[in-house]
Each structure stands twice: as C-alpha cells, then as structure tokens.
Amino acid sequence: TIYLDHQATTPMDPAVAEAMHTAATECFANPSSPHAAGIRAFREVERARGTVARFLGAARSEIYFTSGATEGNNLAVKGVVGTGSGAPVRHVVTTAVEHKSVLDTCRSLRAGGHEVTVLPVDAEGRVDPARVAAALRPETALVSVMLANNEVSTIQPVARIAELTRAAGVPLHCDATQGVGTLPVDVRELGVDLLTFSGHKIYGPKGIGVLYVSNALSDEAPLVPLLHGGGQERGLRAGTLNTAAVIGLGRAVELLAAGREREAGRLAALRGRFLAELAGLVPYTLNSGTGVGFLPQAVNLSFEGADAQQLLLEVTAVAVSSGSACNSSAQEPSHVLTAIGLPPERIRGSIRVGFGRFTTEEQAVRAAHALAAGVLAAQPVRTA
Ligand code: PMP
C-alpha cells in the first residue's frame, strides 16, 4: 500500500525506533528514582526535553510531556480556565476548524457554565484576526487557534493574533500538531503562551506529546492539572514518564530539525507531481490551497459524484483519508469542510492526500493512477 495519510499519523522513523529500543531495554528505571539507574533515565529524559525546548525556542522548564496533542489541548484549555466548582464564569475564544480535542473540550466547558465563542472562517479556512480581537471580553481567559489545519492545511495568522491577544492581556494557545512537521515553530516568534503537538505526526511514537507553557504564564496563573498524583512534570502532569517514548520523541525532533525546510520543498514538489498526473486522468476540484498560507505536504480534493468512503475501501493500493481520520467513526460530514462552506455532495466526494518523509515520486504517480482508476470504475456507465 502507498501510504499517503500522513496527517492522520506518520510511520516511525527507523532511527526513532532504534533509540526507543535502546531506551526501553537500557533505560528502564524510573526517572524519578534517586539511584544511579534512575538518574541515567532522568538525564536522557532531560536531554530530550532540551532538544524539544531548543526546537521551539523555549526554555527547558517550559516543556511538559503529555500523552499527545489531545491531552495537551485538554490540559491547555481546561488548565487555564480552571474547572473547579465555584470558579467564576470564564470565556474562551476559538475557531470552527479546530481539532475536536479543542472544540469538544470547549463544549465541555460550556456544559460547566463557561462561555465559548467559536469564530467562523473564510472559504480557505482562515480566521480573521480582527474577529478574534472583537470577540475578546474582560472575562476572556484564553484564545485557542491552531497553527495549521489537519483537513484543509490552512495556516492561521497566529503571530498576528498573538499581537492582539497580548495587547489585551489574554493568553493564546496554539495547537501546532499539523504545523511542526514542515513550518518553523518558534514560540517567541509566534508569540504564543501555550503550544501543543504530538510525537506520531513527526515520525515519532504515538501516545506522547508536548505542551509548552510559558514560564511567564505559569508564574502569573499556574495551570490547573488534569491528573494529580506523584507531582511529575512540575506538578502539572502526574504519572511516571513514558521514558522510551520521551526519548523517541526527542530523536524525532532532532531528525526533523535537521532538514525541515528542504523536506518541505520536496513534499510540495511531490504534491505538485501527484496533482499534475491526476489532472490528466480524471476531473477533480481542490478543497484546499496549494500556495502560500497552506501546508506544503497535503491536499484536499473532491471527485464529482464520488463517494469517498467507498472509494477508499475499493482502492486498496493507496491509503488516503476521507475528511478527517480522527472523526472517521462519525458519519457526519467533516466540520472543517462544512465550515469553509462546501456543499454536502462535495464533502461526500472529498479525500485528503498527504505526502511524507518516505514517499517517492514514483509512488505519488502510481497513487494518482490508482485513485483515478477507482473513481472511473465507480462511475455509472453513460448510455447514449
Ligand atoms: N490536533 C490536531 C490538529 C490533530 O491533527 C490531531 C491528530 N489528528 C490532534 C490534535 C490529536 O492528536 P493525538 O491523537 O495524537 O492526541
């Protein structure tokens, strides 16, 4: 199978697997243990934390390991708002195209009596910073805007939004899960106070992620933890660290940092080759942009009259996604494609194709042929 579903997850880089194997067998001691073996594990964990910190332009003390972006997003939003009983009613601003781990977290806050503003986006999936500013209120506790969208690849104007939230004294959280792989992500340049990502979208392990929280924010208004216990991660996230996964994530970040810009260019070229090949075989409509302001490695497109779910099952030679894989169990149309104004038929015929580190040009071309053949085979025979 030609794997072109890198927005759902990425294959683990062999160098990461190797680092994890060594970590799991030789670095098994509890990194909180004060004996020599524990200290060794602690050192390895802290080395990985340092790698992540440098990668984000943050301090080591601002990096917290979580189980992934879902937990990071939950912790950022609930941690800042505070969900204890008797807490004052707070307000959160977010966008209609966020991942469900942000949107559903906000919905749970609403159920708890807090207020949430979900901002609309334009036809490209972009939120207007002026709308963010206009939505701020004295009781606004947090703004959460993603770096790049997992379905339509739109890059949000996070740095511009940060200028506005900063001026208003409101913390800004950014879900950078889809952006870290190909975009430069420096927390100071972006101006964010909190930022999340997951290991498995950058050729690292699943079940591990990062939450950045600026020390300025922690000092001013410490986050309320979701998990209480042994006080790990400076009391913000209790539980024995998944040492091997942390070390694997550190290795994945090292690999990423080494060649991100060149790789982003290579991926954009692969995508271009795929689309050019496809154009000669079957008509399609783009649902996402392929220029400035969009991730270079993915594209969302629709085949007219096609049922994408059916197509994915029939074209076994290629692994792509219809809508968002994170929601694939839900049969409702994608909330992102709906938010950018696509009609239901176009959503029904939509697929997301995402290229990755191990994709070759030959695979991109073969995938175009396999998908086109699948689309044409499914079309009803036209009679004169
Ligand atoms: N945010 C975004 C933008 C994502 O694409 C994903 C993964 N689909 C997540 C959050 C959740 O990541 P995880 O499943 O690793 O918790």
UniProtKB/TrEMBL annotation:
Q: Which Gene3D superfamilies match?
A: 1.10.260.50, Aspartate Aminotransferase, domain 1, Type I PLP-dependent aspartate aminotransferase-like (Major domain)
What keywords is this UniProt entry annotated with? Iron, Iron-sulfur, Metal-binding, Pyridoxal phosphate, Transferase
- Residue ranges constituting the Aminotransferase class V domain according to the UniProt record: 2-363
| Highest taxon above the source species | Bacteria
The prosthetic group or cofactor this protein requires is: pyridoxal 5'-phosphate
Query: Main EC class of this protein?
Result: transferase
Q: Which GO terms describe its molecular function?
A: cysteine desulfurase activity; iron-sulfur cluster binding; metal ion binding
| UniProt keyword Transferase, yes or no | yes
Q: What is its EC number?
A: 2.8.1.7
Reaction catalysed by this chain?
Answer: (sulfur carrier)-H + L-cysteine = (sulfur carrier)-SH + L-alanine
The reply to whether Iron figures as a keyword in the UniProt entry is yes
- Which PROSITE patterns does this UniProt record tie to the protein? AA_TRANSFER_CLASS_5 (PS00595)
Q: Which family does it belong to?
A: Belongs to the class-V pyridoxal-phosphate-dependent aminotransferase family. NifS/IscS subfamily.
What is the protein's name according to its record?
A: cysteine desulfurase
